[in-house]
Amino acid sequence: MLVVEPDVNTGLLHGFQIRESLQHTQILKDWSLSYDQLSSGHFESHLNELWLDDIQIYEEKISPSTFQSGEGKADSLCLGVFSNLSDPALWMGQVLQGAEIISLCQGGEIMMRTPQQSSFLSLSLPMSLLEEAGEIPQGASMLTHQPLAQEIYFKLTTLLNHVSKHPCGADLVSMQQAKSEILDLGFRYIQAMQQQKNEIRLSARKAKIVVQRALDAMQSYQDNPLTMDELCQLTCTSRRTLQNCFELITGQSPAQFLKHLRLNGVRRSFIQNATSASVSEVASAWGFWHLSQFATDYKKLFGETPSQTLAQCK
User: Fold this and answer.
1) Which CATH class is domain 202-313?
2) Confidence at 236, pLDDT banded by 50, 70, 90
């Protein structure tokens, strides 16, 4: 099965058509990411990546809905803007509709849900280039600033399209000018954040902590799914609080979200161990004991049976 198909390779820009979320996250250098599919359908993404010396720009278009977790690039300020959202996205418990700029500083933690269809642009600037910027918001932040968000989107997409169409015309002078303009976007974002001082609200921070505790517990009890009462006990919450925290961060109930994560874990195991994996062994290792129901849930989420996934990966 051909999972990744490079369609552009200029030395600066790399384009990929991708059919597996695991392959998508492996391509992005210096990021520690996990994408878990949350809605039905075959995973499809298109990824463009451009480097201007040590500045990274990437554009990703993804379908269907995913939950993205992990950490941003170390020693970098990472900015992100959405466009062409089929529905609002969720970033650390906050709703994104296209006018917002999200950021991670110094490898901040990521929890984001994308809708059924989305287009996202990311800009990563080394901290060494921002020493004169003053105080930079640490961790995860969000700025609602439609003019700047639109300018970031326009300049990044224009640059990506130019290099894609004119790889031989991407001379050193024009690339250095582009680098200067891109760096200026970072300084302007920091200035706007210093004026607004808009950090992730406290309730969302608490919800993120609760969800992370539940995810850690799921990993510890991978083959024996926890009941809601057990999750409440481990996260020191009531059922209502646990429900509210998951809906705020993931857009789903705890039971639905954790089942989707376990199904994604099964799929990754199939892909990574295609030659030796058996459907029943992998399913039971992820806590699915009723194989007929597991097969039904798997096909509903990924659009194919477990056996079809294994056959395509061999």
Assistant:
1) mainly alpha
2) very high
Q: Where are the domains of the chain?
A: 4-196, 202-313
| The pLDDT value given to residue 170 | 56
Least confident of 1-5, 73-77, 185-189, 222-226: 1-5
Residue (of 127, 137, 245, 246) closest to 200 by Cα position? 137
CATH class of 4-196: mainly beta
Sign of CA pseudo-dihedral 291, 292, 298, 303: positive
Beta strand 13-18 pairing with 94-96: unpaired
3-class DSSP state for residue 183?
A: helix
Contact 15, 164 (CB under 8 A): yes
How is the beta sheet containing 76-83 ordered, strand by strand? 4-9, 13-18, 44-52, 55-63, 118-126, 76-83, 100-105, 139-144
The reported pTM is: 0.85
Q: Can you tell me which residue has the tokens 């700025």?
A: 143
Write the CB contacts of 90 (distance below 8 Å, at least 6 apart in sequence): 96, 112, 113, 248, 249, 250, 251
Check if the beta carbon of residue 226 is closer than 8 Å to that of residue 234: yes
Torsion angle in degrees (nearest 10) through CA of 255, 261, 262, 264: 150
pLDDT of residue 3: 43
What is the band of 7 on the pLDDT scale with cuts at 50, 70, 90?
A: very low
Closest Cα to residue 301, out of 70, 21, 9?
21
pLDDT digits (tens, 9 = 90+) for 145-197: 999 999 999 999 988 888 887 665 556 556 777 888 899 999 999 988 887 76
DSSP labels for 85-138?
-SS-EEETTEEE-SSEEEEEESS-EEEEE--SSEEEEEEEEEGGG-TTS-----
